[in-house]
Design brief:
By secondary structure, the protein is mainly beta. The protein is built from two helices and 27 strands. Helices cover 6% and strands 49% of the residues. The radius of gyration is 19 Å and the shape is globular.
């Protein structure tokens, strides 16, 4: 894992690159993505730096890309909000598959030593991408609605202190990353907005998620091995602790995208509240799940409407082939210690 003290010392000495010095209007309406990108590129060219959204600023932006040795810092009292037109999001998250229409807001690729920090807020303006509202869910929605982030093939990435709100799609997506730390982060997504996952480590290694408070209509924390990023191998060495989770789907899940193995996963000292499912393992593809430990977790479940995934199960473990052509993997060596459950359904283990 990246040493926390070294990471903090590194960014404390970085030169500041305020987006206001690179032409940002910061009126909450103008797309300031070009100014943000200029600040990022200048900091990267200088050998690294802190790209700053200063306190009190309200900045609207479409897509931009972070680079190595950047601390993207949203200061206390500052808000970064998503643009809402499709033209503001030229890049897709997935090159293929069912979700290839999904666009990307904030990303980075093939880089290292990236931090997102601060006490400010990043707001995805999810309701701007809805086309209708039912009693329990916003549907239909734009198929292209942007994921808040996707960080691909990054070594050493830290997200610390920020508040993320109203994601229109996945909030924090790490694909093929190594040495990931997410700490003291708040994610408050709309409980009626579909596919707005909290944190998605996808084909990642050495991930630490701690002291986070996540409210999300879709899964709060979900480990994935998606097909489009299959080249990055298994998801392994994951530690999740001291988190508070609330979901209209699963609070914590492994799967269902499981095209590679999941190994050495520890979830401890967490509180799950008012969720449609508590702890879930959903194996559907050729990968296997092994060596997983859940310890000292309180779970409270309630049945949401049938449009959401789950039926109030506190613990849900299933292994079912996705289709007739799937040769499914196996689930083995899963341990539950000191789990306290209170809810509207029981425990399901099914294969």
């Amino acid at each position: 894992m990246l040493e926390e003290g070294n990471d903090q010392n590194l960014h404390a000495t970085m030169l500041p690159f305020s987006i206001l010095d690179f032409g940002a209007v910061a009126d909450g309406e103008t797309d300031d993505a070009p100014a943000i990108q200029r600040a990022v590129d200048a900091a990267h060219s200088a050998g690294g730096g802190r790209v700053l959204i200063p306190g009190g600023a309200r900045v609207c932006a479409g897509s931009f890309e972070l680079r190595s040795r950047i601390d993207f810092h949203v200061a206390k009292g500052a808000t970064l909000i998503s643009a809402t037109s499709i033209e503001a999001f030229p890049r897709s998250v997935f090159a293929s598959g069912e979700e290839s229409d999904k666009r990307l807001w904030i990303g980075a690729r093939d880089a290292g030593d990236i931090t997102l920090s601060g006490e400010g807020t990043i707001d995805g303006q999810c309701r701007a991408f809805a086309l209708g509202e039912d009693e329990h869910i916003f549907t239909p929605t734009h198929r292209w609605r942007p994921a808040m982030t996707c960080f691909e093939n990054i070594r050493h990435i830290t997200v610390r202190g920020l508040t993320f709100r109203n994601a229109a799609n996945w909030t924090l997506h790490f694909s093929g990353c190594e040495d990931v730390s997410v700490e003291d982060v708040k994610i408050f997504n709309d409980l009626k907005f579909p596919n707005a996952d909290g944190i998605d480590p996808d084909h990642c290694r050495r991930v630490r998620i701690s002291r986070c408070h996540i409210v999300s209509a879709d899964d709060c924390i979900v480990l994935k091995n998606t097909s489009p990023f299959a080249k990055y191998g298994p998801c392994e060495d994951i530690e999740i602790s001291h988190c508070r989770l609330e979901s209209a789907s699963a609070a914590f899940k492994i799967g269902s995208e499981s095209h590679d193995d999941f190994r050495r996963i520890r979830v401890s000292d967490c509180r799950i509240e008012r969720s449609n499912r508590g702890l879930a393992i959903q194996l559907r593809d050729s990968g296997s799940v092994e060596d997983v430990e859940f310890r000292n977790i309180t779970i409270n479940t309630r049945r949401f409407a049938p449009v959401w995934w789950g039926a109030g199960e506190a613990i849900y473990v299933t292994a079912l082939p996705r289709n007739a052509g799937t040769c499914g993997g196996t689930i083995s060596n899963i341990r539950f210690h000191d789990i306290r459950c209170d809810g509207e359904n029981g425990l399901l283990v099914y294969g």
